[in-house]
Amino acid sequence: MTSPLCLDEPASALSKYFPENDFGPFFGTPCGILSPLYERLESESGLRTVSREDNAVGIAAGAAMAGRSPVVMMQNSGLGQSINALASLVVPYEIPMLLIVSLRGIQPDTTQENLAMGRLTEPLLSDLGIPAERLQADRLAAQVDWARETVCVQRRPAALLVPPTLFGWQA
Questions:
Q1: 8 A C-beta contact, residue 150 and residue 144
Q2: Domain segments of the chain: what residues?
Q3: pTM reported for the whole predicted model
Q4: Architecture of 21-162 per CATH?
Q5: What are 17-51's pLDDT values in tens digits?
């Protein structure tokens, strides 16, 4: 029988998988759910904190135009903030970037102010035509491979969605 995955292991694995798979530079806004990964990427890969998610998307678009495969980390409320930048810049011009979006408003996060975005995140991405996968601890390597194929090879945007419990977040 294999031992269960330690809650810190997904963040540690992802912080190594992303740079090893040609992702970077990294931009983001802080989020409690993403903090274990955020802190690792900040110290290991030079993640740059940007005060607004739509600004991070714009900066990442510039990096993509320079041939890079940028990553933007945000809470799903920040995805709402970024809809116009995604819909009018990233999607129509197929600018490759990886969005890592925390899923506030789904179990176990039942805070009232997050519920609407919890319901809307996946449909919004789908309606934008941005393929997305919800991260699972036992599928991380395969999901990073999928993201690499979509962003780095096909040169299209994609999203990895982080459920609250992946890195051990508790209400």
A1: no
A2: 21-162
A3: 0.93
A4: 3-Layer(aba) Sandwich (3.40)
A5: 999 999 999 999 999 999 999 999 999 999 999 99
